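Researcher: Final request for today, and then I'll write up notes for the group meeting. The sequence and the SMILES for adenosine-5'-triphosphate follow.
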Amino acid sequence: MITVEALTKSYGGTVAVDNVTFKAEPGRVTGFLGPNGAGKSTCMRMMTGLTPPTSGHATILGKKYDELTNPGRHVGVLLDASAQHAGRTGREVLTLGAKTMGLGTDRVDEILDVVGLTPPEAKRRVGDYSLGMRQRLGIGHALLGDPEVLILDEPANGLDPAGIRWMRGLLRSYAERGGTVLLSSHLLHEVEQIADDLVMIGRGRIVRQGTKQELLRGAGTNAHSTDDAALASALQAANIPVQRTQTGIHTPAEPIEVGKIAAANGIVLVQLGQAGGAGLEEMFLNLTAADSREVAR
Ligand SMILES: Nc1ncnc2c1ncn2[C@@H]1O[C@H](COP(=O)(O)OP(=O)(O)OP(=O)(O)O)[C@@H](O)[C@H]1O
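Model: Predicted protein-adenosine-5'-triphosphate complex:
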């Protein structure tokens, strides 16, 4: 379990993280989602004792990170895969980690196997690794001490599609065994398939959080009819907000409401359903629009 309470970090006049509160529960994967610069890494650095908070606090398994004895045995952390010592081989990085945690070298072989680094790759210097290989090594380092909690900042960065699928399987089975996983991403589709819970952050503030199911339910309806302009007008006349999309209309109303209004107005629906992932994407973009560099210009 990770508990974050009113966590705040200011740098001079800039508030990077503003009163952030959430929990990541055991047995679940929590996706920490936000656009570039939203404050995800700063939050994770505060959770793991690397950056002191301006106010608020975070605990892991009921304790502050600094209070955990042999923290690597309780919480596996991957913050920046590129920060590993470039001159060491992958095996050396893991062996050093294992020694620090009081583990034997057989654990190193086990982990190399888990993360899919071959013996010749393990003998190569990290400086010569691809980003995906560094990411695998970083995930391996986080798993080394068989911790109960994982905190992973953008773990999918640099992984190819097969690697992303592998990572999803790994984290899913880790959570099914009772582990707590918090992983950050700036891409909804990356976390949508794996996360049980979502925490959305924009400009340092939580903009929405809940189970993925709850958020998907609130993601609205997509519809397409033989006359979408007439459908949009009919919905607006019933005081239901509506947006035209490339494939029809999107509205926060439930499908049944849209169906009733279409029927009452003699409009033939071709498609009607909950917006699901597409709606969640729309919600995410709308909620974080104020922070988007694209609209800021
Ligand atoms: N050491 C620092 N000094 C000053 N400002 C900082 C520092 N670290 C982070 N920030 C600022 O805090 C804000 C949040 O940054 P952070 O790296 O936490 O975002 P992020 O959500 O992880 O972004 P990304 O997805 O791009 O990695 C940014 O505006 C950043 O410039």
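Model: The chain has a mean pLDDT of 91. The chain has two domains: 2-209, 217-296.
Researcher: Thanks, that's everything.
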